Amino acid sequence: MKDVTAKVSSVELINHNVYEVKLEIDETPFIAGQYLMIVLPTGEQVPYSIGSAPHALPELTLYILVSDPSSLAQKVIEHINTNDSIMVKMPGGDSHLESGAFIEEAEHILLIAGGTGFSQMKSLYDSLIEQGFKGHVSLYWGLRTPSDIFMQEWVKQAQNEHTFSLDIVVNEADEQWQGRTGWLYEAVLEDHPDLSNSVAFISGSVGMVYGTLDQLELKGLATDRCFSDVFAYAPHPDKPKL
C-alpha cells in the first residue's frame, strides 16, 4: 500500500447514520473490491472498502457508518470534515475481481453484503457492468431494518436498468416494508439451491461472513471460490488454524 493524499470533495449524511464521502486522488490504480486506510493524526489507520469502481477515478467514494458518537468512525468523519485533504494508504485487500483467473468464466457471481459491506459489493457490481460481464450476477444486501437502507436511487436504477439481480433482505421489517425478510443466506439459497458453479464474494462482520459461508458450502459452493477480506485477519471460529 502506498501513501496517497486525497482531496476531500464532499461529506454527506445519506441516512440516519451513514455518511457518503467523496475524495479525489491522483492516479493511483486499484481493483474493484479493494480497500483503503484513512490515516488519522493519532497514527491510527482505519480501513474502508472503496465504494466506487476503478473507472470512476480520480473520484473515490466511501460509505462510513457512525453508530456511536464516541466511536472511531465518528473521529474519522470529524477528521475528514475539518480538512481539505487527508492522507490515505491504498490499495489493500485480495478479495477483488482478480482474485481468481476463473472469475471471467464463472457462470454465476454472488455478491453478498451485510450493512456497509455494501461498499465493496457496489464497487464489484459497478465494475462488472462497466466491463460488460455477460454472466449472471446476483447482489444480496442484508440490513437490520428498512431505515438502514442507503443509496436508494442507485438501488432503484440497478434494479430497473441492469440484467444483474439485486435483492435487499431485512431482519426486522416494519408495516411498510414489502421486500424480503430473514437471513441473507436464506434468500440466496431460495433463489439458488445449487451453488456448485458459483463464485461468491462476502462482506460483513466476521460472524456474518462465516455463518453465511457455512450455509452456502452445504449447497455446493467451493471454499476456493469464495472470497472475503475477513479471511485475511480472522480464522473460522469453528475451524481453528492448525
From TrEMBL:
<dbReference type="InterPro" id="IPR001433">
    <property type="entry name" value="OxRdtase_FAD/NAD-bd"/>
</dbReference>
<dbReference type="Pfam" id="PF00175">
    <property type="entry name" value="NAD_binding_1"/>
</dbReference>
<keyword id="KW-0560">Oxidoreductase</keyword>
<dbReference type="InterPro" id="IPR017938">
    <property type="entry name" value="Riboflavin_synthase-like_b-brl"/>
</dbReference>
<protein>
    <submittedName>
        <fullName>NAD(P)H-flavin reductase</fullName>
    </submittedName>
</protein>
<keyword id="KW-0455">Luminescence</keyword>
<comment type="similarity">
    <text>Belongs to the Fre/LuxG FAD/NAD(P) flavoprotein oxidoreductase family.</text>
</comment>
<dbReference type="InterPro" id="IPR050415">
    <property type="entry name" value="MRET"/>
</dbReference>
<dbReference type="InterPro" id="IPR039261">
    <property type="entry name" value="FNR_nucleotide-bd"/>
</dbReference>
<feature type="domain" description="FAD-binding FR-type">
    <location>
        <begin position="1"/>
        <end position="98"/>
    </location>
</feature>
<dbReference type="InterPro" id="IPR017927">
    <property type="entry name" value="FAD-bd_FR_type"/>
</dbReference>
